[in-house]
Amino acid sequence: MRLAKYLAHAGVASRRAAERLIAAGRVSVDGEVVTHPARDVDDSSRVAVDGSPVALEAREVWMVNKPPGVVSTARDTHGRPIVTSLVRSERRLYPVGRLDADTTGLILLTNDGELANRLTHPRYGVEKTYRARVAPAPVPERALRALREGVELDDGRTSPARVRQLEPGVLELRIAEGRKRQVRRMCEAVGHRVVELERVAFGPLRLDGLGRGRARRLTSAEVERLRKAARG
Ligand code: URA
């Protein structure tokens, strides 16, 4: 297995971040610094980062129903609560993508860097489903059509999305991209402000009764469904 992939599987970092660690000369194999991410390693290799040995650990994926005010970064410099503290695991888990602090709902945490990368990279097209309450209500058909076809944002046009109005002023949006504050910016671009935003599904997984602030580990069947969805 390639060294960068090994580090991602070991939960050290995402594949791209692992490549950067390697390029920076922080990774050694059998006692020798390696700076090429394609170096082949296997279970018998002694891999270390900054001198600390790395072992392939059991992979875990958890689902959390994030409450408002909790941040989805691995740590917060403003002292706000962080999403990883809602999960009781022996492993060092990190969030799969981000939700804004004031967005609620489904966020995944894992130590599987490779899976995390596939679930968030637009190339694999894994859909995330959001429910947005917007103002003013209702949203006219032409604005819905614009959201479906793609709207111009300052970082480029959005890809086609599936959008429907569940009730006046409540939209369900399914998008396969994950740009910063994307749903809020898309709605603003068609003249509607998001007043409440919840992610209700990530690929094939739904929150389905998991309470606010609660977390549960995914079953192996659920992880398999996620992997399938991320196969692109
Ligand atoms: N889009 C947003 O605007 N915010 C989120 O937290 C997620 C998607």
How helix-rich are the residues, as a percent range?
Answer: 10-25%
Write down the Rg: 20 Å
Distance N to C terminus: 21 Å
Ligand inventory = uracil
Describe the main β-sheet briefly: 9 strands, mixed
Question: What does the average pLDDT come to?
Answer: 93
Number of domains: 3
Count of separate DSSP helical elements: 6
Q: How many extended strands?
A: 15
Do you know the CATH architecture of the largest domain? 2-Layer Sandwich
Shape: elongated
CATH superfamily of the largest domain: Pseudouridine synthase I, catalytic domain, N-terminal subdomain
Structural class: alpha+beta
CATH topology of the largest domain: Alpha-Beta Plaits
Output the CATH class name of the largest domain.
Alpha Beta
Give a structural overview:
The chain has 232 residues and is α+β, with helices and mostly antiparallel strands. It folds into three domains: 3-54, Roll (Structural Genomics Hypothetical 15.5 Kd Protein In mrcA-pckA Intergenic Region, Chain A), CATH 3.10.290; 61-121 and 205-229, Pseudouridine synthase I, catalytic domain, N-terminal subdomain (Alpha-Beta Plaits, 2-Layer Sandwich), CATH 3.30.70.580; 127-202, Alpha-L RNA-binding motif (Alpha-Beta Plaits), CATH 3.30.70. Helix content is 22%, strand content 28%. It has six helices and 15 strands. The strands form three sheets. Strands 5, 6, 7, 8, 11, 12, 13, 14 and 15 form a nine-stranded mixed sheet that branches. Strands 2-1-3-4 form a four-stranded antiparallel sheet. Strands 9-10 form a two-stranded antiparallel ribbon. Helix 1 packs across helix 2. It is elongated and about 65 Å long. The mean pLDDT is 93. The site of uracil has 8 residues, from helix 5.
